[in-house]
Write a structure and sequence with these properties.
Blueprint lengths: L17 E3 L2 E20 L5 E18 L13 E4 L6 E8 L3 E3 L2 E10 L12
Antiparallel strand pairs: 1-2, 2-3, 3-7, 4-5, 5-7, 6-7
Length: about 130
């Protein structure tokens, strides 16, 4: 039986499912961390004078339900794009766990970061 919304309340993860390399995955427990670094300025005696916060990368993690039991769980280096949410952008997967199965479902945990430069670059003549 399909879930039918009555009103504007969103159910599930707003950006799920996601597509990676032409394969569709259901995303669960997706979290995003907006990182930053604090830079301190001290006087000659080491006393703090000022601080500032420098924004860093957007990083995240998720549990992905594999499309089939035979799908490759090693997603390191693959990308996915999210649209229609406050986290729009292209993300690169940096870590991927061993696939775990529970009943008919096969899941893998991944970590990722938002790419800063989404333009492909090529290197030649090196």
């Amino acid at each position: 039986m399909a879930i039918i919304k009555d009103g504007q309340q969103a159910f599930g993860i707003e950006s799920s499912p996601i597509t990676i390399g032409g394969v569709t995955y259901v995303a669960e427990n997706m979290t995003f961390n907006y990182t930053a670094t604090r830079a301190d300025l001290n006087d000659s005696n080491g006393e703090p004078l000022a601080s500032t916060v420098v924004p860093g990368r957007i990083e995240g993690s998720a549990t992905l339900q594999l499309a089939t039991e035979t799908a490759n769980p090693n997603l390191v280096g693959t990308e996915f794009t999210m649209t229609g949410t406050r986290t729009d952008g292209t993300y690169m997967i940096t870590d991927s766990s061993e696939a775990q199965s529970q009943g008919d479902y096969v899941k893998v945990s991944v970590t990722f970061y938002k790419k800063i430069n989404t333009t492909p670059t090529t290197t030649s003549g090196i």
